């Protein structure tokens, strides 16, 4: 693989030139949100300047242009993840809303006592809390596939846990805490062998690697625009068309109906049936531009760049001797992030020291509290990489650890 022109890429992100106290920002908080390149910002500003109007095919020119752009954004996303077409791509607010859409529309209607929902111990709260609540409301049990000491899923346990009582297997594609890349195709096959559905949380996968929903075989798949060089306020729920056809919407209103009388309503076509009200139009335009931008660079190269940086960060941190790193060793089943703790220093203190060096990382439980309980730590510090990050930035992170040792350890 040809390596990236990182300098050229960085020039499309004015925010990366920002300085605090005379030091240029080192942005390593990409698993929380990525920065937005000029072409994406320009596409959105062009929308507001040139063809802002409500969609749903108004008669006037501006609405027609906005409607076409909004619809084409669905087509572009469908192509990007290899879905069959726009019918399978629902725009939501974010991954969290995508998960809730599925849980309310499908889960509340289909699940009953005796049914089982199988999750993994490394689920983000977006799916863990959602399925936990749906379990409580329907009487379905929630079970968790264990992780082993290396931070990978125990697939023998998965095979024990997924049975004919399982109705859905919900798994994170790439863990936002451990970096583990899970065998989501295998989990989906296991679900299907037992007549269950699969839902994959791809919030940390779609931004960073080629994702083909057909190859995975997933019934449902979710991700967020703001983690893939796109805007906030837009996310995606992919679903197989025949499943979406059978599902009841859980949000109602304008734009999603076929016919309404004072007594009854019927629903419109996919995907609009699940997108009532005025949708995120500028954001859809931005997401379209972000997909174009990512594919121009190439998802294979993006993955290679991030894996290389994560491996470098892993090795450098590991060599320090007093750093505990969570998740698998750097390799082909690790994504572009590293969560760790420095011995004797709380993650929040460390992160604040790093901020003194304008190194932006995240401290906390990363919305995986039960996983942190299992790891036996209340919090960790997470450095997460994207296309514009460099080895020099990793070096700055590692160099700043000394200050933390002097102050706290
Ligand atoms: N799942 C995973 C694995 C994530 O990393 C995140 C974001 N931290 C989410 C879900 C939730 O994404 P959002 O906040 O965009 O809904």
Q: Could you characterize the architecture of this molecule?
A:
The protein is built from 14 helices and 17 strands. The chain is of the alpha/beta class. The protein folds into 2 domains: 6-30 and 299-408, Aspartate Aminotransferase, domain 1 (Alpha-Beta Complex); 41-295, 3-Layer(aba) Sandwich (Aspartate Aminotransferase, domain 2), CATH 3.40.640. A 7-stranded mixed beta sheet has the order 4-10-9-8-7-5-6, sandwiched between helices. The chain has a 4-stranded antiparallel beta sheet with strand order 13-14-17-16, with helices on one face. Helix 2 (38-50) runs antiparallel to helix 10 (281-297) and helix 12 (347-356) packs across helix 14 (391-408). It is globular, with a radius of gyration of 22 Å. 50% of the residues are buried. The mean pLDDT is 96. The structure holds 4'-deoxy-4'-aminopyridoxal-5'-phosphate. Residues 31, 94-96, 124, 126, 172, 176, 201, 203-204, 224, 235, 367 line the site of 4'-deoxy-4'-aminopyridoxal-5'-phosphate. InterPro entries: Aminotrans_V_dom, Cys_dSase_SufS, PyrdxlP-dep_Trfase, PyrdxlP-dep_Trfase_major, PyrdxlP-dep_Trfase_small. Keywords: Pyridoxal phosphate, Transferase. Residues 26-397 form the Aminotransferase class V domain. GO terms for molecular function: cysteine desulfurase activity; pyridoxal phosphate binding. Its cofactor is pyridoxal 5'-phosphate.
**Top CATH class of the largest domain:** Alpha Beta
Total domain units: 2
- Give the total of beta strands: 17
Give the % helix: 40-55%
Looking across the biggest beta sheet, what order are the strands in?
Answer: 4-10-9-8-7-5-6
* Mean pLDDT score: 96
Structural class by sheet pairing and helices:
alpha/beta
Helical element count?
14
Give the overall shape. Answer: globular
The description of the largest β-sheet is: 7 strands, mixed
Strand portion, in percent? Answer: 15-25%
What ranges have pLDDT less than 50 throughout 5 or more consecutive residues? Answer: none
What is the straight-line distance between the termini? 42 Å
- Can you list the ligands bound to this structure? 4'-deoxy-4'-aminopyridoxal-5'-phosphate
- Rounded to the nearest angstrom, the radius of gyration is 22 Å
CATH superfamily of the largest domain: Type I PLP-dependent aspartate aminotransferase-like (Major domain)
By CATH, the topology of the largest domain is: Aspartate Aminotransferase, domain 2
Q: What is the CATH architecture term of the largest domain?
A: 3-Layer(aba) Sandwich
């Amino acid at each position: 693989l040809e390596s990236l022109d990182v300098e050229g890429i960085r020039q499309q992100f004015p925010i990366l030139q920002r300085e605090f106290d005379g030091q240029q920002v080192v942005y390593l908080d990409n698993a929380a949100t990525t920065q937005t390149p000029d072409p994406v910002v320009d596409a959105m500003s062009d929308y507001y300047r040139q063809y802002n109007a409500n969609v749903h095919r108004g008669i006037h020119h501006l609405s027609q242009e906005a409607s076409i752009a909004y619809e084409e954004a669905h087509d572009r996303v469908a192509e990007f993840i290899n879905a069959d077409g726009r019918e399978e791509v629902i725009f939501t607010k974010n991954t969290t809303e995508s998960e809730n859409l599925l849980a309310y529309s499908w889960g509340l209607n289909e699940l009953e006592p005796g049914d089982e929902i199988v999750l993994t111990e490394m689920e983000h709260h977006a799916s863990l809390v959602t399925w936990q609540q749906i379990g409580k409301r329907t009487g379905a049990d929630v079970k968790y596939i264990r992780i082993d000491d290396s931070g990978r899923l125990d697939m023998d346990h998965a095979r024990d846990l997924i049975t004919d009582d399982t109705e859905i297997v919900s798994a994170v594609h790439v863990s936002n805490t451990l970096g583990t890349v899970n065998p989501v195709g295998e989990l989906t096959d296991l679900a299907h062998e037992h007549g269950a559905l699969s839902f994959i949380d791809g919030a940390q996968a779609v931004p960073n690697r080629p994702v083909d929903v057909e190859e995975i075989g997933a019934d449902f798949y979710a991700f967020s625009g703001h983690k893939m060089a796109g805007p906030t306020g837009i996310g995606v729920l992919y679903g197989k068309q025949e499943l979406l056809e059978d599902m009841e919407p859980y949000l109602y209103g304008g734009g999603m109906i076929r016919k309404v009388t004072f007594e009854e309503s019927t629903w419109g076509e996919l995907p609009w049936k699940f997108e009532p009200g005025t949708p995120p139009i500028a954001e859809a335009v931005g997401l379209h531009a972000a997909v174009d931008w990512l594919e121009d660079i190439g998802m294979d190269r993006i993955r290679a760049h991030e894996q290389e940086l994560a491996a470098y960060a892993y090795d450098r941190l590991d060599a320090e001797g007093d750093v505990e790193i969570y998740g698998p060793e750097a390799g082909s089943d690790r994504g572009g992030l590293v969560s760790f703790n420095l011995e004797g220093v709380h993650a929040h203190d460390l992160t604040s020291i790093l901020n003194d060096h304008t190194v932006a990382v995240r401290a906390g439980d990363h919305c995986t509290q039960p996983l942190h309980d299992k790891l036996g730590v209340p919090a960790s510090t997470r450095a997460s990489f994207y296309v514009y990050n460099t080895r020099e930035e990793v070096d700055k992170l590692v160099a700043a650890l000394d200050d933390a040792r002097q102050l706290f350890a």
